[in-house]
Amino acid sequence: MAESLYVGVFGTEVRAEHIPYFSRLLEVLQKSGSTEVLYQPFAERCLAQGLIKSPVATFSSAEELKEKNVQFLISIGGDGTFLDTIPFIRDSKIPIAGLNFGTLGFLTLIDAQHLEKTVEDLCSKNYDIECRSLLNIRSESGIPEPFALNDIVFRSEKFGLLHVDVYVDGKFLNTYFGDGLIIATPTGSTAYSLSCGGPILLPENQNFILTPIASHTLTVRPLVIPDTSKIEVRVTGNEPQYLATLDSRRSSFQGEQTFFIEKAPFSIHTIRLKNQPFFDTIRTKLMWGQDKRRDILHKPE
């Protein structure tokens, strides 16, 4: 008798326009013979909406996800929801697949229009695994869940002027004056850092990016450093309180503090389907090679 396949399903909500796709996903998973294990708060919302029937297997912690022997996790939503799975995955090496119910979606690559083929590929392990590096942070007062897949951002709570002294491998780099500083992974290079002028890195690049936010020194530019670097950050400024944001998780601090940032000792495994090379993803998501002016000029009457 074949061993049952346990599939984790993580989400926060299912909007009305996505209900048909979500229902179809559950139907296809059940037809494949797999057992769905839903994130507990998500299961409760789905139950209230009538999208699932009780009882259903659930998880609410990283430990429960491991105990239920989940082979892979499907994140339903946008990239923000995908990032919310990281505290549950941690160092388990459970691969994550993102079902795109969001907008841009560099991490949520699965198209809701092709669920049957996608589930077939997932269940048969017909996909590639990308090992994504994370940032790890330590501070004097401690930070819960001290790792980030996208980036670590320092900024004032009210967008006041922040002074950020940065040392790399014990050597002074610069004092950043402005709204804050982003320290991004290759995964995070297509997120906040990109909107502040940072470069795009391939997922397998072994680098981090230091990207200033609205620098008051116009000659300061994003800097790429090896991911073996040890980064020391000392935050001061005119504002009494400031934030250290790890992906979507925020911690508030007051007064001058020192933070130590380096590559985390484990990586996150993400699923990339065979027909989704990274270059295709960025070209499509960022609409490279498309000329909207030409489309307008040649629009048929």
Give a written overview of the molecule.
- By secondary structure, the protein is α+β, with helices and mostly antiparallel strands.
- The protein contains nine helices and 19 strands.
- 36% of the residues are buried.
- The model has no long low-confidence stretch (mean pLDDT 89).
Short description:
The chain is 22% helix and 35% strand. By secondary structure, it is an alpha+beta fold.
N→C terminal distance: 62 Å
What low-confidence regions span 5 or more consecutive residues with pLDDT below 50? none
Name the average pLDDT: 89
How helical, in percent, are the residues? Answer: 10-25%
Q: Which class of secondary structure composition applies to the elements?
A: alpha+beta
Largest sheet: 6 strands, antiparallel
Instruction: Output the number of helix runs.
Output: 9
How large, in whole angstroms, is the Cα Rg?
21 Å
Strand composition percent: 35-45%
Oligomer: single chain
- What is the strand tally? 19
The helix/strand order is EHEHEHEHHEHEEEEEEEHEEEEEEEHH
Lateral arrangement of strands in the main beta sheet: 8-7-18-15-10-11
Shape: globular
What brief labels describe this structure?
301 residues, alpha+beta, 6-stranded antiparallel sheet, 19 strands
What's the structural blueprint in terms of helices and strands?
Blueprint: E1 6-10, H1 19-31, E2 35-39, H2 40-48, E3 57-59, H3 62-67, E4 72-77, H4 79-84, H5 86-89, E5 96-100, H6 115-123, E6 127-132, E7 135-139, E8 147-148, E9 151-156, E10 162-168, E11 171-178, E12 180-184, H7 192-195, E13 207-213, E14 223-226, E15 231-237, E16 241-246, E17 249-254, E18 257-263, E19 268-273, H8 278-285, H9 292-297
Parallel strand pairs: 1-2, 1-4, 2-3, 4-5
Antiparallel strand pairs: 6-19, 7-8, 7-18, 9-12, 9-16, 10-11, 10-15, 12-13, 13-14, 15-18, 16-17
